[in-house]
């Protein structure tokens, strides 16, 4: 399962997100999109070296995230189960006439 698909299932979970610049965001996930952009509510934003800010809503751009820190109470086994199992595509059946042509090609010999 891809990480983004796992994170998309974490609606209404309270997480901490550490950003690449050292800022820590703590809040409740309202949604995660395919670009790993994370939307949170009831947020406490702690910029490195400054006092924490409290915000109602915040969106974090996916490429700025270093870590998603999950709560210990999260049941990973149920979240990691894929709803639809993967179906391996069948290999195409080779046309026998093409295989015969490949064998019939005369390869140059070294003199």
From TrEMBL:
Family listed: Belongs to the snRNP core protein family.
Annotated protein name in UniProt: Small nuclear ribonucleoprotein Sm D1
Function description: Involved in splicing regulation. Facilitates post-transcriptional gene silencing (PTGS) by limiting the degradation of transgene aberrant RNAs by the RNA quality control (RQC) machinery, thus favoring their entry into cytoplasmic siRNA bodies where they can trigger PTGS. Does not participate in the production of small RNAs.
UniProt KW Nucleus keyword: yes
UniProt organism field: Salix brachista
Residues in Sm domain copies: 2-74
UniProt cross-references to InterPro entries, sorted A to Z: LSm4/Sm_D1/D3, LSM_dom_sf, Sm, Sm_D1, Sm_dom_euk/arc
Single GO biological process annotation from the record: regulatory ncRNA-mediated post-transcriptional gene silencing
SUPFAM superfamilies in alphabetical order: Sm-like ribonucleoproteins
Source species taxonomy: Eukaryota, Viridiplantae, Streptophyta, Embryophyta, Tracheophyta
Alphabetical list of Pfam families matching this protein: LSM
GO cellular component, one term: ribonucleoprotein complex
Keywords: mRNA processing, mRNA splicing, Nucleus, Repeat, Ribonucleoprotein
């Amino acid at each position: 399962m891809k990480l983004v698909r796992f994170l998309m299932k974490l609606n209404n979970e309270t997480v901490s997100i550490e950003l690449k610049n050292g800022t820590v965001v703590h809040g409740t996930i309202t949604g995660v999109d395919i670009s790993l952009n994370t939307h949170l509510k009831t947020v406490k934003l702690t910029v490195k070296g400054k006092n924490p800010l409290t915000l109602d809503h915040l969106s974090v751009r996916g490429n700025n995230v270093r870590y998603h820190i999950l709560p210990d109470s999260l049941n990973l086994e149920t979240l990691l189960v894929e709803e639809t199992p993967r179906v391996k595509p069948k290999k195409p059946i080779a046309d026998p006439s093409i295989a015969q042509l490949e064998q019939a090609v005369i390869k140059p010999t070294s003199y």
